Structure to design on (86 residues):
């Protein structure tokens, strides 16, 4: 005769552990998603697209710094980027 016949058994404990792990992972992801925009606001895209111009200027400056483009090409492209800014 079994005294403790209404327990979860081994399968129940495994399932309970997996659900607990999934909930913990979801909580961590939710905290990261909530804190990330506050900690790194410069990485968030701007709604009006102005951030794209700044990113393009940064990319252009990086290319100039690496020597991929010369000073004349850098200045010409920078003027074009800034003229296209809304």
């Amino acid at each position: 005769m079994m005294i403790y016949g209404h327990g979860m058994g081994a399968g129940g404990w495994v399932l309970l552990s997996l659900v607990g792990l999934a909930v913990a992972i979801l909580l961590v992801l939710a905290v990261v998603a909530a804190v990330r925009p506050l900690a790194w606001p410069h990485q968030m895209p701007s709604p009006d697209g102005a951030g794209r111009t700044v990113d393009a200027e940064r990319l252009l400056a990086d290319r100039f710094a690496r020597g991929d483009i010369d000073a004349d090409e850098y200045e010409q492209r920078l003027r074009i980027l800034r003229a296209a800014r809304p």
About this structure: Residues 17 and 43 are 36 Å apart (CA to CA). The chain has two domains: 1-40, 45-86. The helical segments are 9-39, 50-66, 71-84. The radius of gyration is 27 Å.
